[in-house]
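Because discrete structure vocabularies remain unfamiliar, we first show an illustrative case, written as a sequence plus integers encoding its fold.
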Amino acid sequence: MNKPPPMHPQVKRPQLKPQSPPSDFERKAHELVGRLIFTYSRLEVNLALFVASHEGSEARDKVLAQLEKGGSFYDKLALVLPTVRREFPEDADCMEIWDEWLKEADALRVKRNDMIHGRWGVHEHLGEVINITGLPSSDQKPETKYNLEQLEAEVQQAERTAQMFYELHVGKWRKARWKVFYGPKN
């Protein structure tokens, strides 16, 4: 078995921390970050399914091919409003509702990018869960600190935005569709 080459004498070996069982604080932080990841993931998949299911077969194939190439969350959001506009070109109320949702979703997207692509740490003695963006070797490492209540609020906001998308799709979307096909419902 080959041994790795010795480290240069001037290079300090990083000090690694032993992995210890997580505390209750850490477990709660893990749970909240996990809920965020699952919520973001579910919303991203639902966005892709939504767009693909409302396009004609030729356009759907093109959209699916684009999304399979690894389209970003931003790319998926950018496809929602044109899809809604094609379905309901004359429904200003419907467009206003979707516009409002897209503003919320875009704000969520910015946070999502940092949370998904950042590194997480816990400073239990300070009661903080920290998300650090940027490269470890960079001088600039923007960090966002959360206490558990703030992190829970972020989770709830993400879950609300995802739920609102679902409700627009199955609820208000169908009501708007009813108006287009059958006229006002009495």
